[in-house]
Amino acid sequence: MVKVEDENEATARVEAALYSAGRPLKIEELIRASGTESRAKTYNILDNIMKKSKSAFKAIEIATLPDGSYVFQLKPEYSSTIKKYASKPVLPKATLKTLSYLAYMQPISSKQLLETRGSGVYSHLKELRQLDFICHQNVGRLRIFTTTEKFQKYFGIQGDVENLKERLFSKIRKTATQTKSNSESQVIPKIN
What we know:
The protein is α+β, with helices and mostly antiparallel strands. It has 9 helices and 5 strands, in the order αααββααβααββαα.
């Protein structure tokens, strides 16, 4: 790798890496992207980019995640506003259903997840672990799954698990009420 001496070029490289990755990047990846071969210089570049983005952008940010990685993302408070414009969901529907079930029922065993979500749950769990949205503890031969701090930050969830469960339950009730009222208002005429 060619060492980059120009700070503007190194900054452009870090910005490009964060923008194009579409996922969190660890500092080691950003050091390679910057071409500086220096942890201190890369942290300085990141700090400058984060300061500039706070003043330049209202809806997007560069966030530091609990595991120390960095991500260029939409601020959580805007995610529901623009979801209809998103070209590709973060997770496939089936994986998202597994994640929501796990989040609501946590702590939950792999056996319970398998019984509820079927054998495809194993690939969902693998994907969710790779994204660091879930973690597990071994209890005997069972794995007990819970969501992580990264999951909460990524989806803009604040507070404890009970608060999360109440928010999920209220959304389910609201959706069910809307669906019921919509089906009641659709009267099918009788054909004689």
